[in-house]
Amino acid sequence: MLKNLCQKMFGRSLWVYHANSGGCNGCDIEVLNVLTPYYDAERFGIKLVGSPRHADVMLCQGPAMRSTAKALQRAYEAMPAPKLVFAIGSCACGGGIWFDSYSVLGPVEKLIPVNYYIPGCPPRPEAIIYGVAVALDLVDKKTAPVQFKQTELPIPRYHPADLEGQGEMVVYKKIEPV
Amino acid sequence: MSLLSKLKEAVVCLKAGRVTLPYPAQTQPVPPRFRGRPIFDAAKCIGCAGCANNCPAREILVFDVCQEVRILKYLGRRCTYCGRCADVCPEKAITMSHEFENATNSIGDIQQKLDLFMSTCQRCGRCFKEPSPLEQLKLKGYRFDDLANERWIFRSKAYLTEEAAVDDVKIELD
């Protein structure tokens, strides 16, 4: 009974390890902002730990770089088994704007499996808390892939049927400002 | 003396009140000039691909199915929300929204895909003009980006094969 109670009370307190594999420190600052009293991530039981061996969650910032690839993989392997990986920022989600330079391998999902993505450059502290809340099932995710189809041309096309006579002049009916 | 100072501290702490924002329950409005996710308006878009040519992260892919139909796909994985696509858009079809809550468990959720009608122009049908002559050099009429592997292809005659979506960073350059 005590075990059940403990699982219910402490089941979702995540210990977070914060791995930067070559980012610009923008996302680091936002992650540390989340831990300040204003945003206070300890409401969700989130605690920053210094070693991947203590952690449940790895927050990845920065792209997968050639110089830190091995270190990132070793940090991931050092984490105990039920583990989550959050990719924070556009570098970790997709490689960043220096995605095609020689030392950048790409997104971190090239090296380690990623569970949750928080895009943004850097993401707001609220966005990071939102990602954590999505992972904890507190809120639903808001994004979904969108597809639009144009059913007609946005620019009015010239067509002789739209010409009409006004006195001596011939006026094109469908002129709209584009 | 020390007890008094402790009491003073307690009073100060009680006066300060609670500063924590109860975030997922209650939101704070973002600043007015905040740039969030770009939203593409398919009704206004003329398909000039100016956004795709100017995107620093190369996250907008353009694929010409035929003369009349062009597919424009925004991936948004490494989008830095710089707002350059909204700046260059001649029709103001792209707006930088205030949406920042984009956290997902699959990266494909952020993408937007537009199927556009193109007018038949005698030259190339693609009417965007770059502002400087140097940038006009890199402009090309038809574009065949790799939609299946989600990669930007610089030359229209370049052809990339057999790599996964994660491996999109190897772009063939002239």
Textual characterization of the structure:
- Chain A has 178 residues and is of the alpha/beta class.
- Chain A has a single domain, classed as Rossmann fold (3-Layer(aba) Sandwich), CATH 3.40.50.12280.
- Chain A has five helices and ten strands; from the N terminus they run αβαβββαβαββαβββ.
- Chain A has helices at 2-10, 26-34, 69-78, 89-94, 125-135; strands at residues 15-20, 47-48, 57-61, 64-65, 84-88, 104-106, 116-118, 146-149, 163-166, 169-172.
- Chain A has a five-stranded parallel β-sheet, with helices on both faces. Chain A has a two-stranded antiparallel ribbon with strand order 4-6. Chain A has a two-stranded antiparallel ribbon with strand order 9-10.
- In chain A, a hairpin with a 2-residue loop joins strand 9 (163-166) and strand 10 (169-172).
- The N and C termini of chain A lie far apart (70 Å).
- In chain A, 39% of the residues are buried.
- Chain B has 174 residues and is α+β, with helices and mostly antiparallel strands.
- Chain B has a domain at 32-150: Alpha-Beta Plaits.
- Helices cover 17% and strands 13% of the residues of chain B.
- Chain B has helices spanning 2-16, 50-54, 84-88, 133-137, and strands spanning 38-40, 60-64, 69-74, 94-96, 112-117.
- In chain B, the strands form two sheets. A three-stranded antiparallel β-sheet of chain B has the order 2-3-5.
- The interface between A and B is large, with 56 and 53 residues.
- Strand 8 (146-149) of chain A pairs parallel with strand 5 (112-117) of chain B, so a sheet runs across the interface.
Distinctive features:
heterodimer; A: Rossmann fold; five-stranded parallel β-sheet; 5 helices; elongated; B: alpha+beta; Alpha-Beta Plaits
Write the SSE topology.
The complex is a heterodimer of chains A (178) and B (174).
Chain A lengths: L1 H9 L4 E6 L5 H9 L12 E2 L8 E5 L2 E2 L3 H10 L5 E5 H6 L9 E3 L9 E3 L6 H11 L10 E4 L13 E4 L2 E4 L6
Parallel strand pairs in A: 1-2, 1-3, 3-5, 5-7
Antiparallel strand pairs in A: 4-6, 9-10
Helix pairs in contact in A: 2-5
Chain B lengths: L1 H15 L21 E3 L9 H5 L5 E5 L4 E6 L9 H5 L5 E3 L15 E6 L15 H5 L37
Antiparallel strand pairs in B: 1-4, 2-3, 3-5
